[in-house]
Amino acid sequence: MRAEFGADGAAGGVRLWHVVRGEQSVAMCGRELDPGAPVREATDWGRTPELCCHTCGAYFLRETPYLSAEHQ
Which of 4, 22, 37, 69: CA 20 to 30 A from 13? Predict the structure, then answer.
């Protein structure tokens, strides 16, 4: 995940978290993000005090394979 800053930029803190592929600065939803913005692991989705982009979450879930119960 990569952070999107608010109107005040980095000084204003993280506004929203987006999912990115690898180290890209373009979110799965298409939003251009600051390449120097903070990053987190995708497993932190929903575990941040800030909101996460709903659209990125939907794309991420469609691309992430699910483990079946027999493989756990």
Answer: 22
> H helices of 1-72, where?
54-63
How many structural domains compose the chain? 1
pLDDT band per the 50, 70, 90 thresholds, residue 33: very high
Q: For residues 17 and 27, what is the distance between their CA atoms, to the nearest angstrom?
A: 9
Half-sphere exposure of 65 (CA within 13 A, CB side): 4
Band of residue 25 on the pLDDT scale cut at 50, 70, 90: very high
End-to-end CA distance of the chain: 25
Q: Which domain holds residue 56?
A: 2-71
Tokens coding 52: 């996460």
Q: What is the pLDDT of residue 64?
A: 81
Beta bridge partners of 32: 26
